[in-house]
Amino acid sequence: MRVVIIEDEMYAAKRLENMIREFDPQIEIAAWLESVEESVEWFETNDEPDLIFLDIHLEDDLSFAIFEKVRVSSPIVFTTATDDLAIKAFTMKGIDFLHKPIVGDELKAMLQKYLKSGEDFRKPIGAGFFSDILDK
Amino acid sequence: MQGNKIFDILKNGSRINTNLAVTNSSTMKLKEMLAVNRDPGFSDSWLTNQLYILLLLTIGGTGIVLFWQLLDQYYVSQFETQLKWIRITTIAVYLLNLLIAVLRKSPKAHKQHLIAGFYFGTLFCSLMAVFTGASESPYWFGLFFIIVAWFIIMPYNFFEMIFHSLFFLFIFFTALYIQPFYELVYYEMGRIIFLYSGTLFVGFFAAYIRNNLNAENFKIRNELNQRNQQLEAANKELQEEVAVRLKKEKELNKFRQVLEQTPGAVFITDKHSNFEYLNPVFTKISGYTEDDLLRQNIFKTLYKGSDEIPESRKQVVEYLSQGKSWQGELLTVHKNGNKYWANTIAAPVKDEEGNVDGYIVIQQDITENKRMQQALESSEKRYRELTEMLPQTVYELDLNGNIKYMNQTGMQKFGVTRSYWGQSAFNLIAPEDHRRMMENMKKSLSDGAQTRGNEYTAVTTDGKKFPVMIFASALMENGKVSGTRGIVLDMTEHRDMENALHKSEEKYRTLIENAVDGIIITQHGKLKFVNRAFCELIQYSEKELLDKPYKNYVVQEDHRMMEEYHKRRMSGEDFQTMYRSRIYKKDGTLMEVELNARTSQYNNEPAAFIIVRDITDRLKAEEELRIAKSKLEALNQNLETRIKESSQKLTEANTQLIRLQKENLQSQFEVLRQQVNPHFLFNSLNVLTSLIKLEPDLAEKFTEHLSKVYRYVLENKDNDLVNLQTELDFLDAYIFLLNIRFMDKIDVRVSIDDDKKELKILPLALQLLIENAIKHNSMSKKNPLRIDIYVENENTLTVENNLQERESHMASTGVGLKNINHRYSLLEMPAPQFYKTDTKFIARIPLAN
After folding, report:
1. How far is CA B593 from CA B220, B517, B749, in A?
2. CB of B447 within 8 A of CB of B474?
3. How high is the pLDDT of residue B2?
4. CB distance B808–A135 less than 8 Å?
5. Lower CB count within 10 Å: N or C terminus of chain B?
6. Dihedral over Cα of A53, A59, A64, A65: its sign
7. Any CB–CB contact under 8 A between A96 and chain B?
8. Pairs of residues, one from chain A and one from chain B, whose beta carbons lie less than 8 Å apart
9. Residues near B348 by Cβ (< 8 Å), separated by ≥ 6?
């Protein structure tokens, strides 16, 4: 099982990584991406992971911009400090999220759901999916 | 043919004919044969006619004579002339002989001439032989043949033959003794005698045989003849008998056809009750075919004995055995097991001596009949029940007018009982109506059709009179009129109702005449009825108005509409209308009227029934009302507008108030929110949780700084302004946290001189600006976010960052900056300035002293 962490703060990324490893060392952290640009490049050249942890604020842009450029169907879990709008959007779109700081049990639940349950949560996300959240 | 075997006859039909035919043909043949052998004198066919033989002989003889003429060339004789004369004479004699024979018609005569012919022939030959002289004269052969032929052909009996031979000899030898002849034949005498004897001998022999044969034939013929006569007699008898039989057969055939085609079922048994014959109808009703029953015993089949034999059947057997016929109904069993009633006639068949020879039974399936009868009975019963139930009088009279039947109602009404039946119906009718009733009765009897109802006065047996209406028709029985039948309606009620109707009509009439409004009835476009009020209104008299077209009095423009309504009314459509119009009074003035119309019936035809009301006054009142109303409306409108205006104002004020309240609350909330700044808090905690495990020392420091930040917030949230120094202290802690969080991605530099640190600033404004910058700009190691904070002049603090705007941004409320603005405006300080250049974002915050 491959997981990608898209997070621009090092400490946050590191912590998440450790927590995942603690849950199941078998899970491979396929990549740690810090910017939209980096992510897009990575998705274009790599196989889709089984799960993506996605921070909203990346170095260069909001992470939504990734999906403007590349089509991804891996299940996504957003990580966010409170941002009401985002939360609303996520629940509407049926996307899971985790509050920052990430709570161990909550993370476990996510991993369980998306990686261990055996269900297929793939949902293609492409351009325009988040346009109602964004200003555009 | 024996006995009276009808069955046999019928069965064997025309066998007689065939036998007879055979007999007939045998007889015929016999007849033919006898006809052929009619004359016992001759046995051969063509030789029976002696005349023919004579003819032949003549021709033959003549031929020979002429033929030898030729031969005589070889025999020279001195008797040439004599020979010639002999020849001529012979021929002449032959012909003469023939001629006379022909003239004499009888067979006896023919025989004589034939004999004569032979003699002449023999004589000729002899003479010729003698005169030619030659010993081998062919005349001797001729003689020989003639004599032999003569004996063969001539059917003499023995004595006749002896006689003829001797006679011939006598002639011959006598002739010989004529001198010239004697000399001639002297030398030939021996030969002559030998030849002649031989000839005679042959002749005798041939004749003997022939005669024997003839005799045989004769015997046979005789016998045949006898037989034939017998046969003829027998045949005649037979023919007679056959004729009689044929006649009988024809008659029987007729009967046979009758049996085959009769609609009745017929079967015939012999005296032992075995089936001999059954007709198709029997097969139909019983289901048994000929094959089933023929020669079978009736008691083993059709009427096979059940446990108990019904009386009827026993009776039949009894009667028949006594030689009597029986008639009645027998329950018969169909081949398929169903039972049916058969109307049966069973009779014995007797032969010529009167002995019972068999039985004949004729049956008729009366199940259907019985059913029909029952149906008829029940239908009659129904009819009677019906008539008894009717509340009207139903009666039947015979041709004399006497009561044959009267139902219960009738008997009650007229006060009679059953015993009264038979009496004359005229007793129940008032005498003054008798003649009319009789005439009407005659009419219904002769017409046969139902007459219309006639009214009479009826009288009960008590003498009470009451009006009636009688409907009568002829009563038919077996196709003939047997009486009358009818219904009597009691008209008393009817009369009463009529009177009541009259009275009520009167009432209505009075009502209408006294009405205040005009009431009219129009029909077919004309006024058919006008009441007094209408006449007064319109100023015309009733006479002037009746039967005039209503249009005459109505204004032109309303004509079309009224016409339409009227047409619809006349077609029977039932509807009401109420409308206004104007009519012309007699003086020519117009009157406004209201017309209230509906469809009705007048003299059995649809009509319009209209109430006409003068509405002149009403109109005036209406007009006044209208004016008043409009005035009121105007007033009302005015009032409404005013109210609307004031309420609008009120609403506006209200809305504004609410809005202000909302804004107030919002800004309060925002302030609060800002102070807590959950976004900052959680992000910081996020970092902190990482640090705890990864870099515990740093975590400790981080926590310290974080608490410092929040302490500052709590302490200064209520302050309007703070010292720049305090704010900067806070800023240090804040920046420390930022650095750990963002590391190389952010670079915040504060360069403020100490002397400026006494100036005052809005607390947390800087923090907000920094947050803003972070929010809206991208920050990476490659392109870190550079924020410079410095004091530009006495009054302004600048916070500028390099512009690296994110492409996408979430819709922000912009409240943050607005809040600063708002707070500054509340403090009545100049507003902060925010603007962008190509590369920078600059915020200028006013400072206070």
Report:
1. 145, 10, 103
2. yes
3. 41
4. yes
5. C
6. negative
7. no
8. 90
9. B320, B323, B324, B325, B356, B358, B359, B360
Name the residue type at position A5.
I
Note whether B683 contacts A: Cβ–Cβ < 8 A.
Answer: yes
Separation between Cα atoms, residue B80 and residue B63, nearest integer Å: 20
Percent share of chain B, pLDDT over 90: 12
- The pLDDT score that the predictor gives to residue B735 is 92
Give pLDDT < 70 ranges for chain A: 82-86, 88-89, 92, 132-136
- Which of B168-177, B276-285, B554-563, B672-681 has the lowest average pLDDT? B168-177
**How many helices (H) does chain B have, and how many strands (E)?**
25, 22
pLDDT the model gives residue B354: 81
The 3 state secondary structure assigned to B94-149 is HHHHHHHHHHCCCHHHHHHHHHHHHHHHHHHHHHHHHHHCCCCCHHHHHHHHHHHH
- Please indicate if any CB of chain A lies within 8 Å of the CB of B779: yes
Give the ipTM.
Answer: 0.85
In chain A, what residues touch B688 (CB-CB under 8 Å)?
Answer: 101
DSSP state of B599: E
The answer to whether residue B7 scores a pLDDT higher than 60 is no
Shortest distance, CA A120 to any CA of chain B (angstroms): 30
Residues of chain B with Cβ-Cβ distance to A101 below 8 Å are 682, 685-686, 688-689
Smallest Cβ–Cβ distance between B806 and the set A10, A62, A86 belongs to A62
Confidence of residue B49 (pLDDT cuts 50, 70, 90): low
The candidate with the shortest Cα–Cα distance to B554, out of B531, B538, B570, B572, is: B538
CA torsion sign for B243, B248, B249, B250 is positive
Tokens of B360: 């004949």
Q: Which tokens belong to B421? A: 């039946």
Q: Are residues A134 and B683, on separate chains, in Cβ contact within 8 Å?
A: no
Question: What global pTM score does this model have?
Answer: 0.37
For residue B215, what pLDDT is reported? 66
H-assigned helices in B471-611: 492-513, 532-538, 542-545, 559-570
